[in-house]
Structure to design on (231 residues):
């Protein structure tokens, strides 16, 4: 699978401060420092009219909750180049509980893109007219959160792992659960025995071929037990 040497992500949100912690720690922070991952968190309120920078409003027809307005979304997407020439246009993703459920296959697809715009819904979502500018609508599960910010963090983290160089050992990524459609095998570390619980002897044998065969077999057994739907 051909992957870009770096990935650019623009996150469009009402609450940019929510991303300070996740983007400033661990692999995401290292990837940004190395220039492998470029993330810009964009405040949707910067594209709202009026001194109050209001980007949401009541729903036509009545009902509870507020809705992100179509005009600030349009202004933001235009500024971010979403309406440019096809070859230069970024992929616009709307994070929503109504979207297709995120899995490793979708992560692999999106990782091929050079640039993504992640639109974080909030309150009752976005004005339906803005959906015409969305390329994919993605959910992280059949439950409702307060907004699309946490799903955007989940997607960003999953995508970052796919960029060459973000994870030091590429083999670690390729042997993760779901990468090849199965769960990962069990892993052990020191001590070799703890309170009578021993590490499988084959892992201490030094026989790399036998270890690899054990890991493949154990991964299949674990998948059959925990996620038979994957087989």
């Amino acid at each position: 699978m051909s992957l870009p040497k770096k990935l650019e992500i623009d996150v469009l949100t009402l609450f940019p401060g929510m991303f300070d912690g996740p983007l400033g720690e661990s692999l995401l922070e290292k990837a940004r420092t190395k220039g492998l991952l470029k993330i810009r968190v964009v405040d949707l309120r910067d594209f709202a009219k009026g001194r109050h920078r209001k980007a949401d409003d009541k729903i036509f027809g009545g009902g509870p909750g507020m809705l992100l307005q179509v005009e600030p979304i349009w202004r933001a997407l235009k500024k971010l180049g979403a309406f440019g020439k096809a070859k230069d246009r970024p992929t616009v993703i709307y994070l929503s509980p109504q979207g297709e459920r995120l899995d490793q296959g979708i992560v692999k697809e999106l990782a091929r893109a050079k640039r993504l715009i992640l639109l974080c819904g909030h309150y009752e979502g976005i004005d339906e007219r803005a959906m015409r500018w969305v390329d994919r609508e993605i959910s992280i599960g059949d439950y409702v959160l307060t907004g699309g910010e946490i799903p955007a963090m989940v997607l960003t983290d999953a995508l970052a792992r796919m960029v060459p160089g973000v994870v030091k050992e590429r083999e670690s990524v390729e042997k993760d659960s779901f990468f090849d459609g199965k769960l990962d095998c069990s892993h052990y570390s020191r001590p070799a025995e703890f309170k009578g619980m021993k590490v499988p002897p084959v892992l201490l044998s030094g026989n790399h071929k036998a270890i690899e065969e054990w890991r493949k077999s154990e991964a299949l057994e674990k998948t059959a037990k925990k996620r038979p739907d994957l087989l």
Observations:
- The chain has seven helices and nine strands.
- Helices lie at 20-23, 26-34, 70-79, 104-110, 149-160, 170-174, 208-226.
- The radius of gyration is 21 Å.
